[in-house]
Target: Nucleoid-associated protein F6R98_14015
Amino acid sequence: MKNPLANLMQQAQNMQENLKKAQEELAATQIAAESGGGLIKLTLNGKREILNLRIDDSLLTDDKEVLEDLIIAALNDGMRKVSKLKEEKLSGLAGGFELPAGLKLPF
Model:
């Protein structure tokens, strides 16, 4: 007969290893974001670090506030994309984690 606690511990260890692997993959992923129809482009990684920022030359003669707004819009686009990717990568990790019969958690 299998030990339910040992089985639970093995599942927890496997889930922890999968989580670490998913976090490493996410950190290495590069996400492209933009605003102003591509006038502002940036690349960030899964740790939300900006790796690259490109500003179209035509914006350098525009109003400073327009440039600031476009940069903020591009950053927000990138952050949303990272959050979505993180959710997708990490959502399936707990699947298959089975609790022993009768064990109830408070959440």
